[in-house]
Amino acid sequence: MIQDIKGLHHVTAMAADAQTNSDFFTKTLGLRRVKKTVNFDAPDIYHLYYGDAAGTPGSVMTYFPFPNMFPGRRGVGEVGETDFAVPEGSLGYWRGRLEGLGVAGLADDTSFGAARLRFNGPDGDAFALVESGHEDRAAWTGGAVPDDVAIRGFHGVRLMLRDPAATAELLTFMGYENQGTSGDVARFKIPGGNGADTVDLVANPSAAAADQGAGSVHHVAFAVEDRAAQIAVRKALADTGYQVTPVIDRDYFWAIYFRTPGGVLFEVATNEPGFDRDEDPAHLGEALKLPAQHAHLRETLERRLQPIVD
User: Fold this and answer.
1) Using one digit for the tens of pLDDT, what is the confidence trace for 40-90?
2) Within a domain: 101
């Protein structure tokens, strides 16, 4: 069994407009944009990162905004919902705030004893704010949301699956422990994790497969401390029969990827070196940062990429 996973590292999704996406996460949800860079494989598309003050692993939601992308269709084989942790007693504030800003899909529920507020992002993305007790993670305090109610990072993700059994077995191998069920949701939690500790499995045997587009999660990344731990995880997965990519340098972390039995793309990312490797911590996410292989395209990219007004 793997013992190096610390919880979630980041969640990466797709959007149809960079400005709308940036406004929603920074102005509506009060997160910090910690990096403005480009998709390594398609440099004419932004890669935007949002999180706490430093972009701590377990807090970072990232997006590829493809201009005018068609909306995704929800279904099985994807991350169906991304959940953020907020302090206990804060959902009243959040309901008032999100209602006032015209956010769609607001709905209250309870799962595993915790109060939740579900809502949609601008592309129909499915989110929830989950009241989390004993939360000691620091929030980003430079935004519009007061510290005592602000998002602390991820609570977890919910995977929509036709048959969760094989994914449950994989999560157990990755060090997650089965916490039981609440309704049709099975919960898995990493012991002693980074706060972004839960992965929920939702079974829907008759649902159609998801069709990815704007509002869809592209992949979910799990955190390991360093490259040595990542190599150990890669070997363990490969020895078990998973087809795992070589290690890829993503500038702010190293990454490996593999497809799960349920069809969801998993990544394992290192906590090192972090988002301040090429920017002063006081100015994260302000300038366009390019990976070395695309540095020669700066003039062209700055002309083609949609300007983002903060």
Assistant:
1) 999 999 999 999 999 999 999 999 999 999 999 999 999 999 999 999 999
2) yes
